[in-house]
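re: ur msg from earlier - yeah i can do the 2-acetamido-2-deoxy-beta-D-glucopyranose complex, just paste it... oh wait u already did. ok heres what im feeding in:
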Amino acid sequence: QHWEMLLHSLGRCTKVWIPDPDEVWRSAEIIKDYKEGDKSLHLKLEDESIYECPVDPQGKELPLLRNPDILVGENDLTALSYLHEPAVLHNLKVRFLESNHIYTYCGIVLVAINPYEHLPIYEDDVIYAYSGQNVGDMDPHIFAVAEEAYKQMARDEKNQSIIVSGESGAGKTVSAKYVMRFLATVGGSPSETNIEAKVLASSPIMEAFGNAKTTRNDNSSRFGKYIQIGFDKRYRIIGANMRTYLLGLFYELNTCAEDFFYTSQGGDTSISGVDDADDFEKTRHAFTLLGVKESHQMTIFRIIAAILHLGNLEIHVESSKDTCTILNEDEHLNNFCSLLGVDYSQMQHWLCHLKLVTTFETYVKNMSWQQVVNTRDALAKHIYSQLFKWIVQHINKALHTSVKQHSFIGVLDIYGFETFEVNSFEQFCINYANEKLQQQFNLHVFKLEQEEYMKEGIPWTLIDFYDNQPCIDLIEAKLGILDLLDEECKVPKGTDQNWVQKLYNQHTRSQHFQKPRTSNTSFIILHFADKVKYESEGFLEKNRDTVYEEQINILKASKYQMVASLFQDENNAAPSTSIRKGTAKLSIRSTRPAIKSANKEHKKTVGHQAICSLCTSLTTQQIVKILNLYTPMHEFEERVTVAFIRNIQTHLQERKDPPQLLLDFKHMFPVLFPFNPSSITMDSIHLPASLNLEFLRKV
Ligand SMILES: Nc1ncnc2c1ncn2[C@@H]1O[C@H](COP(=O)(O)OP(=O)(O)OP(=O)(O)O)[C@@H](O)[C@H]1O
Ligand SMILES: *[C@@H]1O[C@H](CO)[C@@H](O)[C@H](O)[C@H]1NC(C)=O
Ligand SMILES: *[C@@H]1O[C@H](CO)[C@@H](O)[C@H](O)[C@H]1NC(C)=O
Ligand SMILES: *[C@@H]1O[C@H](CO)[C@@H](O)[C@H](O)[C@H]1NC(C)=O
Ligand SMILES: *[C@@H]1O[C@H](CO)[C@@H](O)[C@H](O)[C@H]1NC(C)=O
Ligand SMILES: [Mg+2]
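and the outut:
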């Protein structure tokens, strides 16, 4: 069938796409036969102008064929005769601009365009309309994907995973929420436990604490989330369980706090000046629904306020440069201590001093300004991540059920690929995680597609898909970027600059690594989605993120029970994250060694916490592990939404660099291409003699 269609369209199609610096792709009609050796191709553009398109003598670089108009607007991209960049873009553009269709299938994948406005397509009656229907009978929709997962779970007795991917701001979190809402609606039970409502209530909380404003997305997820919704034998929701991967959120905390919270006034520990009363109320309501006590809620907000004050305290540098002090009356430290219920003078002392324990003696050393700043920031992040863990644990407790779970549907929503003007460690972690996710995507989708063709007897050969293993190796292999970073952290006088120099020496020949011509402090990685330049400054410190035991001990002694409890088990907490107590054996230990304090003399200092290994290997290893554990190859059902930023029109016209939309396509779609291009030979196709199409690049 596909072959027939291809033949058919080849016979009729005389239109092509030519690259254009402004419009990206322009449509053109071939108006004169091309003969071998011709130096140009005679084309008529849509504005009726004639264009002689130069072609290289070998006829290798020739325009791409345009799909027959009758196919444009198809709701499944695989129905197109030609599935290449201009074809995909054009089809999505037509659907989106002409009929406001944001959803399109591409085989088993759902492609979603972020409309950036509320469309009336998510109401309950739409949910009911999709419920029980077959995918093929309805317009593409996120609900159709959710329904399909639900149906397959019930009919085929298979657990399901829905993976939402796409760059930052593309709409992943929104999509994941719609999936959850669909499932909560169709899988809701009349019982009084109200479990669906609780499952949905987890979202605003997680967003309040795990989102932050970035230039790409006002509520960008700074954590990855895998939520597993459990069903009983009758396919009613009975509970849920969530796993999260928090990034070093602290850097954005200030803006995010502005968005949801308050600032505590003076020594007063009450919460005042709530900025966004609405969101704040929503968060509190959700907390209450999930059984978080009023007093605990207050403590949570106090802790947030305390962290903000910690970031503002004044550090005075003494005349001898290696000594710092914090005044006896520092307003911010005072607030910090009273909010957390800890001792002022001890905190004041241990923020500026370091206890060193050697075999022979114990002594106290003054910290430099930089050291104070670094350890303070590490402490703030640590407090925040402990709080985040506490919240997740509580949500999980509220969503837990003692009833045996018959099956589940998991939804994975991680932070999306991102690139800014200046990219640092956080972007590196995020993009590395996405690189790993993309690899999973490639493997699974690729395999599924091929099985599909075999089943339908469609001729196929191995498709040469974009394999990002080399890029992953560059990052995680021995002597790779992370390995060298850890090594540099261990060197007593290690610096970002030395590390980046080592990267240059080691990797300049790598396909995925570049040294920028104009900088000797940054490096470029060619990720699957984009080329990203990272500034090395701060990598070492952020990777190290050492928290000192003396500071933690003060917090442990807090007069507030909840604050104290956040820091228990500190001593045996290796940098391994036990995702949730009492569930499957999913406690994953870092494959990388814990990052020990750099300095020899620091070595004996107990209680160092290498938190940020959480951001790198652990985070991604866990995601990958979860993908593998819960989505075994042989029964993998994948639904992916790839969503894109802004509207296509703007992007095509502005031609911003890098045109993210295009880059995404380049790397998402080749995987799904239904034929091996080179397997089509012109000999096997009978063409009207008048139409010499041989020159066209067949894709
Ligand atoms: N289906 C949709 N309809 C209307 N608006 C949407 C839709 N999807 C996304 N948006 C808008 O886009 C914004 C960004 O979406 P979202 O937060 O889901 O992105 P994300 O992919 O999760 O990004 P990040 O990786 O940064 O977390 C939303 O706040 C919302 O305003
Ligand atoms: C996300 O950001 C937009 C724009 O600022 C805002 O209107 C919306 O309410 C936010 N969504 C959530 C869940 O906070
Ligand atoms: C360490 O700091 C204290 C003040 O906190 C100061 O009195 C002392 O001289 C400093 N020691 C050194 C070695 O600089
Ligand atoms: C689905 O997951 C549940 C646990 O949640 C498990 O008991 C069940 O065996 C799984 N089903 C299949 C088909 O693997
Ligand atoms: C990096 O470049 C700056 C100026 O561009 C130069 O001063 C510095 O020595 C260089 N560093 C190294 C390690 O090459
Ligand atoms: Mg998100």
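cool cool. Confidence is low (pLDDT under 50) at residues 1-13, 250-275, 460-464, 570-699. ping me if u need the other ligands too
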